[in-house]
Design a protein that fits this description.
There is one protein chain. The C terminus is likely disordered. The protein has an 8-stranded mixed β-sheet with strand order 1-2-4-3-5-6-7-8, with helices on both faces. Strands 9-10 form a two-stranded antiparallel ribbon. It is an alpha/beta fold and about 450 residues long. α4 crosses α5, α6 packs antiparallel against α10 and α7 crosses α10.
Length: about 450
Amino acid sequence: PRTARRMARSRPRKKPGPNAADVTPSSPPQHKPPPAPRPPAQGQASSPTNLSPLRAAPTTPPDSLHKTTTGGSRLRVRSRTNGDDAANLPKLKEPFTPGGSTRYEAVGGRVQAVDGTWVAYALTRPVPRPGHPKAPLLVTVNGLSNDGFQWEGLVPTLKKEHAVLSWDYRGHGCSENPRDASKVSIESLAEDMQLVLDDVDNRGLASVAHVTVVGYSMGCQVALEWCRQHAGGRLEGVALILGTPQYSLRTVMFGSKAAADLVATFLDSFQTPMAFAWEMSFAWTFATSYVSHALARALGVINIPWGAFAPFYRHLKRLHGGAYNRMLVTGQRHTAMDVLERLDRREVPTLIVTGGKDFSAGKSVFREMHFAAPRASFVHLPEACHAGMIGEREAVTEALEAFLHEKRESVAFNRRRLYDATGMNVSPPESPVKTAGGRDVVADPLSPAISPIKE
């Protein structure tokens, strides 16, 4: 017996297996990798088979493919497989953003106008990535008494290939009330737009080398005035939506320019009392927005539900009466039809959207714009009122998409044509002025990179 005990002690003991109480139920089973196929002997051909070839074992051990937390909940599985397995694995869904996987960010800022008023702006742009060029700029120009809520439904379309810049007039939205209301005019607002672009350029937020302008209502006049003063060769396209390039009060006064001029003179003669009267009317309209909206729908001025137009009524509480009055006066005394004609002669892509129930632009305005810009793309929406960007949003979006596509093709074509004709991508600024029809052509700052078209 003693000899048997000594022999038992001398034998190596096996390590005890894990206790069942210590094993985590959620831990995955340990699998051994399958053995690699043995290569055929030298001189022996491999037998044909209909099975798919065996895949090589993963280089990462199975323990690292599955991880568990302390509570037993399994984390995301990270497996390294070849291309055949990748097609069969479920793909993780990423949050949808227009333009694929591009991420966007909003950047705000303020710039001081000539009279000291702070003008606010906001830029929606793709997140900058090293080695990628900046997106071209698209500027939206609001209408009178608006803070840009109409653009909210269109921004997803506009930002696909552009950095979208929106800004507020003096006395509107997030901008400051004008320090001097008498200085507010269509020309000064166009100057504010240029100051905003300069600030964006100085901060390096977006590239202002290529600019597309989209104006709504009275913003059409401001946009065309900016084209007259500051566009230069960077203008790539202009879209005018439910607006007129001149005499903004004429259609409201039943097409009579004389009556509209008389109203503008009256408003200009009593600026302070009219500013107070406008603010009182804004407060009353906001307080009785349900009744006011129902009355406007009964008169055919608007044909969208109150809920879709509620941001407009809320903005009335903030609207400055003096700035509103001056914009009415200067809008009636301003014309930019000549700018529209020059844009058409230079073949700048232009979109004009009109509404059949829009009280701000009548049929006479349609004829004048068509005569001034016969090459422009005209889209007429018979059921669109002045708030057509909300009521006819799908149709307006479709028109803008077609316009941006046409603009992209036109820019590429013009650059190729310029290169084929001159061998240069950009015309030098000191290039001589050409003549058309036996007379000198005055140099036009609207588009110095494109020579005047022969008449």
